Automatic annotation (TrEMBL):
Taxonomic placement: Bacteria, Bacillati, Bacillota, Bacilli, Bacillales
Keywords: Heme, Iron, Metal-binding, Monooxygenase, Oxidoreductase
Keyword Iron part of the UniProt annotation: yes
Name of this protein: Cytochrome P450
Family listed: Belongs to the cytochrome P450 family.
Pfam families reported in the protein's UniProt record: p450
Coiled coil start-end: none
Phosphoprotein listed as a keyword: no
Domain of life: Bacteria
InterPro entries according to UniProt: Cyt_P450, Cyt_P450_B, Cyt_P450_CS, Cyt_P450_sf
Amino acid sequence: MSTNETSQPELFTREFTQNPYPVYEKLRQTDPIYRVLFPHGDFGWIISRYEDAVEVLKDNRFSKDVVKRYGPDQQNIFVHNMLFSDPPDHRRLRGLVQKAFTPRLIEGMRSHIQDIADDLLDNLNSQDKMNLIDEFAFPLPIIVISEILGVPLEDQDKFRLWSNSIIDATSSEHAEVFEKHAKEFIDYLNNWFAKVREQPGDDLISQLVVAEDSGEQLTEKELLGVVALLIIAGHETTVNLIGNGVLALLEHPEQRDLLIKKPELIHNAVEEMLRYNGPVEFSTSRWASEDIEFHGHHIAEGEIVIVALDSANRDEEKFKDADVFDITREKSAHLAFGKGIHLCLGAPLARLEGEIAINTLLRRFPDMQLQTDVNELEWRPGMIVRGVKEIPVQLK
Ligand code: HEM
């Protein structure tokens, strides 16, 4: 065992949320496979080095099947999807939606996403300043995922509230709010599925409803779990790729100037943004499906294992000058989208949205500045998502 279980390091404090990287560096050096008491009360392990992270993400003995771990009565209805399943269910569930997210299909959305980005910037509340998160980084991916799924755009505020609540439901204080919002979300989706059944369209939910009706491919719980996952992923991730990415540029003006001069660097730049301050800080939980000896540590059957993706992406053993933000860095092989069978299904879409959003912002507002001190920004609490609540910027 590595560390005294009762003396937690500075994990999960407000200071950690504001800037986790010094803690991660310490963990990588002294306790790279760290036994920890999570805020929700379970003991488990945090993996912070790159090579170990890859090993865990690719080793299917670290199961993702939540129903197997907690039993069929487990309360969280949103886990009946590919992210919380092992093969063969994982393959079946992923296979049902994969076709909608292939790189070729997503590339075909380029000019439409460009129009959405331009429209949002044409219609800002003010042409002098904005809250980058609320007025741009948030609506852009939401409009896109809502269109793919076929859900009404006017309900986006509700989806945001429900998604936030589910993602932040890591501590017991949130339990009541979670329950209320979870119920509203479930009722909303079930009503929506009923409408779609009466009048299916050519959107992804219509295809999934047909798959559920045909009986064998998808259960009712899975229909709900898969659609909820896509809505949540669409709300909680790309917004922070855009937010964290723009923030990195504003904090490194020489990098911003380089990207303005050479917009063709955008692909590389987005990869570096994902590596430098990725939107998904921790992988979702895995658990040991058997006793596992892992680099000198005994991980007992049933124990939770979490990969600190943002820590692995700053590992000096893997990335030279890992703390330096360098948009010309070559082939970074970061873990921001995970690795192995659960590698992010939405990665091609997220990359395209990020590239268009950031280049469009820079083209239209090359002199954009942060309106507040960077240390005043409030980072979101919670263990999975890494992003800022608001980013006030001066546009001209
Ligand atoms: C899985 C990151 C955007 C849909 C994942 C995982 C990561 C991730 C790290 C794996 C988690 C684990 O193994 O525990 C990101 C990041 C995004 C992003 C950083 C934005 C920059 C999206 C979008 C969608 C999406 C836009 C929806 C269209 C999914 C799905 C899975 C997944 C369905 C589960 C895949 C599986 O289990 O096979 N994502 N994601 N993601 N993501 Fe994303």
